[in-house]
Amino acid sequence: MAAYEALYRKWRPQTFDDIVAQPHITKTLKNQIIREKTAHAYLFTGSRGTGKTTSARIFAKAVNCLHPRDGNPCLTCEICRDAEAGALTDLIEIDGASNNGVDEVRNLRDNAAFLPVRCRYKVYIIDEVHMMSAGAFNALLKMIEEPPPYVKFLFATTEIHKVPATILSRCQRFDFRRILPADIAGRIQYIAEHEQFTVTDAAAYRIASLADGGMRDALSLLDQCAAVSDTIGSETVEEAVGVAGTESVYEILRACAAHDAAAALQRIDLLYRQSKDMTRFADEISQQLRNLMLLKTAPDDPALLSCMPDALEQLRSIAEQMPLSEVLHALSEVRSCCDRMTRAGNRRMELEMTLIRLCAEDAGQKGDFKALEKRIAALEQQLQTVMQNGVPAAAQPALQMPAPKRKIPAQELQVQGKTDTTQYVPVKNWATVLEKFDEVNPSVSGLLQGSNAFVIEEQNILLMIVRNRLFKSLFMKQDAVSLGEAAAQVLGKKYAIRFKCVESEEDKAAPIDVLLERAKAQGIAVDTRRD
């Protein structure tokens, strides 16, 4: 009985025409072979399972094929058959991870000096070339730049940033793209038809999504699902791979939109008891959050989404419950959670904490953020006005603008002379007054931080002791009216508002003296002698 061969090996492309979703590369290589204008060194880069090593093997067969057909190997001549069987001595395939030293490269260079035995070209395929050491790369430089006319080099790597620029400049570089889910699903259906088992469209697309752009990963998952059942549906994929269903993802998203942490935790508990992979489930949540982001941003272009057509209505229903800012925040939190889960000991706990944080952000907290944004905007507007008034006229832009109405400064309200302190009655709930005033004028209320207030009953005056030097120039008469109304709501009586700016001793002191005092307080020795 013949040994079973994995699907990704059995269905490895044999010609350039069989390679999926890389026409920009296969067309170029075929034309070079047809015109006999092939380069001496190639560098194939891209994510895993996109066809780099496969393309290198096809290229090695095609340049040596006895009867090439439109740039493809014929697959029937003795060269093609021996190359496929691994018996062709002129085709040398090397693993860069295990042959990454200078000695191995020197042996390669010595062997390259000999003429090919049976083929037109001696072809070296070095996989995962980025794993080679710096010394090994340096040993390769001269040979790659000026190799013998009968030698060709084909390098493959998934981490192009680790390959030295000196190597890159001596190679023709081809970037392999991630394969789209639709192309992977089509290839799965083609293979399933020839392997005599059935795959539904939803299951094929589900496998393609889990493969993340890699055809080899997709065929490995298909092989795994085929061992469970000859009729592969979405449930078969979820059972074989150990992933949660899309309905569980939608349930989590609905719970986040409704801020129902209990529902989200119940779903996580159910999946955990079913031995589902929490890391993969978190990644699936992030994928659907990406779909929501695209749906909110470009609602008229559903082709951007990575989902089946029957799931579009569910996504639209969830999108109506979540504003774009909330979707973006949730996507950022879940992606951060995915990164932490790779290092965490308890991955379930990491996901639960993330979902609780997302569900705990209720409407009241969002209102606080909006109020804070309004306060910041008001402060920025006030600061802009002050800065414009303080800039000399020569520095102002030439554009003539109508002069704004001049506000009456509140310096007129400043208390004149000294007041007998024995008549002062402290306002105990002054913080409550400031909270009321903050709702009306947040930009000015911030200047009253650290202030105190006293009531002079005989004169019906509320006196503020302010320690912010900007307050004197920014506090206007209309602000005093608003503050008086806020104080009346809290104190139950209307007072005339007065204030007095008091500088702290630190403000009065010279800057160098302040620094010296702080240094002494912290036990820092300072030498003030002059040489």
Architecture overview:
This protein is α/β, with parallel strands linked by helices and 531 residues long. The protein has four domains: 7-175, P-loop containing nucleotide triphosphate hydrolases (Rossmann fold, 3-Layer(aba) Sandwich), CATH 3.40.50.300; 181-241, Orthogonal Bundle (Helicase, Ruva Protein, domain 3), CATH 1.10.8; 246-300 and 309-361, Up-down Bundle (Zinc Finger, Delta Prime, domain 3); 410-507, GMP Synthetase, Chain A, domain 3, CATH 3.30.300. It is 52% helix and 9% strand. It is built from 24 helices and eleven strands. It has helices spanning 7-10, 23-35, 52-64, 78-85, 102-112, 134-145, 165-168, 181-195, 201-211, 215-226, 234-241, 246-258, 261-273, 278-297, 312-321, 324-341, 347-360, 363-390, 430-440, 442-445, 471-474, 477-491, 505-508, 511-521; strands at 41-45, 91-95, 122-127, 151-157, 172-175, 198-199, 231-232, 425-426, 452-456, 461-466, 496-501. Strands 2-3-4-1-5 form a five-stranded parallel beta sheet, with helices on one face. β9 (452-456) and β10 form a beta hairpin. The longest helix is centred in the last third of the chain and has 28 residues, at 363-390.
